[in-house]
Amino acid sequence: MAEKMTRRDIRDSVFKIIYESLLRDDPVEELFEMAEDIDEILVNDDVRQMVTDILAKSDELDGMISQYSKRRVFSRIAKINIAILRIAFYEILYNDKIPANAAVHEAVLLAQNYSYKEDVSFINGILGSYTRSLSGENE
Fold this sequence. Notes:
The protein is mostly helical. The protein has helices at 7-23, 28-37, 45-56, 58-68, 79-94, 100-114, 117-137. The radius of gyration is 15 Å and the shape is globular.
């Protein structure tokens, strides 16, 4: 797809595909094909790369989620929230072009659009705890 996508459009498509990957055990290429069949999910090279990277690093990202989730064990976190948190941790850890506070803000926006109201503060709390630990390391 040659269509120009904003970072937010890319993140939204990545979120939908990552979420779907948590619900199904399909190979990533099948997830891309399914997404392309649905007009609401745009797939370009950036989306493909980010989804592929996040899925490859899912164990590490899930470990970060577990480490900073003080109120819920990983198995009790809704899959929709895991998808949002995976994207945010991925962007914070692996995308130098996105400041940590921007990744947190974008995760909160995704949560406001797709999660329950109380999950927005849960997601913000986990990411806030992590970003505060980063600033503590740099002092």
